[in-house]
Amino acid sequence: MKNYKTSKINKEELLEYYKVCGNAVKTGTKFGLSGPTVLKIVRLYGVTVNREHKKYADDYIISKYHECGTVEKTGKALDISEERINKILDKNNIDRIKIKHVQIGDKFNKLTVIEFLDYHVTSGGDKCKVFLCRCECGGTRKVKSSRLTSLNKPIKDCGCGWKLIQVNAELKRVKIEKKKKDLDEIRKQKRIQRELNKKNPKDKKYKVGYKHYRLTILSEIGNGEDKVFTVQCECGTIKEVRKLTIPTTKSCGCLQREKSYKNGLFTKNDKEKQLMYSRYKNMKKRCYNEKNHNYPNYGGRGITVCDRWMEPNGMGFVNFCEDMGHRPSSKHSIDRINNDGNYEPSNCKWSTNSEQMKNQRRSLK
User: Fold this and answer.
1) Quick one: 163 and 241 in the same domain?
2) Tens digits of per-residue pLDDT, 140-176?
3) Which residues of 233-263 are buried (b: 16+ CB within 10 A; e: fewer)?
């Protein structure tokens, strides 16, 4: 390789570029070498030489020929020689596409040739005939012969097709604009209606004697939005409520207190009642919640909780506490005397873990 001016060439970069493009001439142009020199370097380093015929299959070249219409255009499109294209066409018995010479009276799509006008000379010196054509819509247009016979995007009409597209697009735009205006008008009407509703809300006649949830209006002072009502709650508490807040006020505050922390059954700081309530809930889950993992050993065996401990509105828990009494210690939990009996005052007691182990059911082996 000393005879070639390749000492400063990055061989690895050259080989990688050649593998990508597969063309010795293009590789040589990039690295300042001739095509044969590139091929010698490629062969010296054991890289397979890409042949031009491997770049395109015959079927692809034939389809490209039908698309372009001539061997010359196909060669330029694929960057291969016309000789190779002709060989492939002959090998596959493909008839050559004859270039149609435009004559007066010929019809191409919607255009009919009616008159020869002149020659058009391209920048490369090629001459092309220009004809006057009449469209099916009645319009006329000057068209080059090559644009009439072209297989790739030929001229099909005088421009009426494009005008029709523009007209349809304009109609669509007007329709969308009208729909948008209609929607804006509907939104405007709704907005006006909301404003009217704010100024004239639905009359809930907040007058003396009117009952709102737990509150009964006793008297009122002031006018308009500054009006203040004196109300009495069902629990007996009397307080003052402003007109602006009475629609959202349901009680003197007792309702919230009743709802807070286990529906008012005990206070947040009563830890013993919390533990009692937890055991009470678990007892009911074991008997009635099929998703509970202990359900098969309790509710699944037909064990239930007595009606007194199942009373609604928290009374069941109150009765449970009264019947079971104070828990002796933190080590005690509720236990059934008869393992096959229900949860009821006569069958329940407080037991330690060891006592419960002695009283538990024995599985049959």
Assistant:
1) no
2) 999 988 888 776 678 888 888 888 888 888 999 999 9
3) beeeeeeebebeebeebebbebbeeeeebbe
Residue 195 CA, distance from chain mean position: 36
Supply the DSSP string of 76-104, one letter for each residue.
Answer: HHHT--HHHHHHHHHHTTPPPPPPPPP-T
Nearest to 242 by CA among 212, 213, 222: 222
DSSP 126-161: -EEEEEEEEETTS-EEEEEHHHHH-SSS---SSSHH
pLDDT digits (tens, 9 = 90+) for 237-273: 899 999 888 888 888 887 776 665 566 677 767 888 8
Query: 3-state DSSP call for residue 285?
Result: helix
Is residue 142 assigned to a domain?
yes
Q: How far are the Cα atoms of 160, 239, 325 from residue 301, in angstroms, in the given order?
A: 86, 54, 27
Residues 16 and 41 in one domain: yes
User: Would residue 364 count as lying in a domain?
Assistant: no
Same domain, 274 and 342: yes
**Within a domain: 218:** yes
351-361: burial string, b at 16+ Cβ within 10 Å, e else: beeeeeeeeee
Q: Does 186 lie in the same domain as 168? A: yes
Instruction: State how far the Cα of 3 lies from the Cα of 25, in Å rounded to an integer.
Output: 20
Determine the Cα–Cα distance for residues 43 and 314; give it in Å rounded to an integer: 95
Q: Whole-model pTM?
A: 0.32
How distant is the alpha carbon of residue 306 from its chain centre?
Answer: 53
**Chain segment 277-296, per-residue pLDDT in tens:** 888 989 999 999 999 999 99
Pick out the chain residues at pLDDT < 50.
Answer: 1, 3-4, 52-54, 202-203, 364-365
Please indicate, yes or no, whether residues 303 and 349 belong to a single structural domain of this protein: yes
Based on the domain organization, do 232 and 284 belong to the same domain? no
Domain that holds residue 125: 107-158
